[in-house]
Amino acid sequence: xxxxxxxxxxxxxxxxxxxxxxxxxxxxxxxxxxxxxxxxxxxxxxxxxxxxxxxxxxxxxxxxxxxxxxxxxxxxxxxxxxxxxxxxxxxxxxxxxxxxxxxxxxxxxxxxxxxxxxxxxxxxxxxxxxxxxxxxxxxxxxxxxxxxxxxxxxxxxxxxxxxxxxxxxxxxxxxxxxxxxxxxxxxxxxxxxxxxxxxxxxxxxxxxxxxxxxxxxxxxxxxxxxxxxxxxxxxxxxx
Length: 239
Ligand SMILES: [Zn+2]
Ligand SMILES: [Zn+2]
Known about the structure:
alpha/beta; 9 helices; 14% strand; binds zinc ion
């Protein structure tokens, strides 16, 4: 059988498997223009440090009681509607093509908010989870974000040293405990190569920030100057 030239392959796949909007399921696009238009930035008032929802007193309860051990968090939007549907499609339905669109959203936040980084690092999956899913969704996002921003992304700096139970539904203290110490710097990067480096950790969703904090701890210990979280979505309320 003659193989198709590589440039043709995506079009052939589109013909064989016509794209459907990951959110509203209309045919023709992996995400349709009306659904794209409905993805908007978190509306104010949001905490300047972590973009969590503010309480009526104007104070973010996390940053008041236990500030995140992170330089800051920035998100594309709220975890709802089409953005939530796209993330769900990427994580649980094997829709790797949607990473092109979602990674571009991350790049737009990086460029639009004038974030500064020397390197992007995706939140690592434990090898077992990686095998089950077949890919690390955060790494797909980081690769696309890297291509659009020109900031290198590295998947060899941070590893997940032990599997952690899913964070879904846990409270903030349980989540912190759940992931504390779960991430390590690889030996090649603990000897000074990260000194003064500005690092951005890429993930799909940041709920309490516990996972991003657990990633940041070994990076700060290895000398990083700043560690930001750049994610697709933050919860609308409740956290
Ligand atoms: Zn749609
Ligand atoms: Zn905050």
